[in-house]
Design goal:
Layout (H helix, E strand, L loop, with lengths): L5 E3 H18 L2 H17 L8 E2 L1 E3 L23 E2 L6 H5 L3 H7 L2 E3 L5 E3 L5 E7 L2 E9 L6 E20 L6 E5 L2 E5 L3 E18 L4 E5 L5 E5 L2 E2 L6 E7 L6 E6 L31 E2 L18 H9 L7 E2 L3 E4 L3 E2 L1
Parallel strand pairs: 6-9, 18-21
Antiparallel strand pairs: 1-3, 2-4, 5-6, 5-19, 7-8, 7-20, 8-9, 9-12, 10-11, 10-12, 13-14, 14-15, 16-17
The protein binds zinc ion.
Length: 336
């Protein structure tokens, strides 16, 4: 798509939910790769850190956000690109808050064989039952700003099940380490550890992140690193144009040059051509509001339970993954 054209915030959130639903039906790694790309890039770019203002339309190449009647859109009003309480129309005001909770509740799902599977990665705690026994899984990580993910399985009683971990298609040379045992994990697959779990067992998943180029519209290129899409940081001047703070409408104007271009030669750049910092100085996504812990517990959807999956497997239908059916306490956002 032409990067000067926009995508509605509702489309970002609803596409994430569509991918989460597709994951529960087909379990393809590529769906999760795309889900993380949207969750870690497009979604947080659509609203202010305090979530009081958001955009209706967001562009990939966005050098100014202002009220403009001579805009490229043919079906949205001139304020669709600014940050506000409900610019253009109020649908995104309602939809924007569904992105993070639905992402958190789909991080883990139950496998058809009764095990559990990590589809996407964020700090979280899963409390569930496997074969009637309580099992707790805690994920500690700074992913996607760090390549290492620590997963601790706690089982008070000995229990045998399969732990599956998604290895993204972009992660070559991934490893899974339990104690002193290290094994390789193939990109684009689910790595399976099937064993008896008892007490606390920590699994260390390392997902090496390379820097990659992608061809885009009209000869453009995008630079990606792991699940992150790189962008030039432009200085910002926020101008309040309507309403009153904190639920006001804002234009954002550039204060630093933005008209740079990458000079590409015939040789395709590789990871060696980049110097990559290990971690940003602070988390770029940061909700600066008081928050309360949230719990979700929902019954399995009709037709998506383990019994239905076994019937599908018996009928030769595609492998399906299901929600874990337990509680998920997730905190993908750092809350202060
Ligand atoms: Zn909308």
């Amino acid at each position: 798509m032409n990067p000067s054209q926009g995508t509605e915030l509702c489309a970002v959130v609803e596409y994430m939910f569509s991918l989460e639903t597709l994951l529960s039906a087909f379990g393809d790694v590529e769906f999760a790769d795309r889900l993380e790309r949207i969750a870690f890039n497009a979604l947080p770019a659509t609203f202010k850190p305090d979530m009081w203002a958001h955009q209706y339309d967001q562009q990939a190449n966005q050098v100014v956000c202002k009220i403009c009647d001579e805009h490229i859109y043919t079906n949205n009003s001139g304020d669709a690109n600014i940050y506000g309480l409900e610019p253009n129309f109020g649908c995104c005001t309602a939809n924007m808050h569904q992105g993070w909770p639905k992402f958190a509740s789909h991080l883990w799902m139950r496998s058809p064989d009764g095990g559990i599977t990590a589809l996407a990665y964020a700090p979280c705690v899963v409390e569930t039952k496997i074969s009637g026994q309580p099992v707790r899984v805690e994920v500690n990580t700074n992913y996607p700003f760090d390549e290492t993910i620590e997963i601790t399985v706690s089982a008070p009683q000995p229990i045998h099940f399969a732990l599956r971990l998604r290895v993204p298609t972009w992660s070559e040379g991934a490893t899974v380490t339990i104690g002193d045992e290290e094994s390789t994990a193939q990109a684009g697959t689910f790595h399976t550890t099937e064993r008896e779990w008892h007490g606390d067992t920590t699994t260390k998943l390392r997902l090496p992140m390379s820097t990659r180029f992608q061809s885009r519209f009209n000869g453009a290129v995008a630079i990606e690193h792991g699940p992150l899409l790189y962008a030039l940081q432009i200085g910002e001047e926020w101008k309040q144009v309507r309403g009153e703070a904190p639920h006001a409408d804002w234009e954002v104007h550039p204060t630093t040059p933005w008209n740079y271009a990458l000079k590409l030669t015939a040789r395709i750049p590789t990871t060696a051509d980049f110097r990559v910092g290990s971690r940003p100085p602070r988390h770029p996504v940061c909700a600066r509001r008081r928050a309360v812990a949230a719990e979700s517990q929902r019954p399995p959807r009709a037709g998506m339970g383990v019994g239905a999956q076994r019937r599908r497997a018996a009928a030769g239908q595609p492998r399906r993954l299901d929600r874990s059916g337990g509680r998920t306490h997730a905190h993908p956002l750092r809350l202060h």
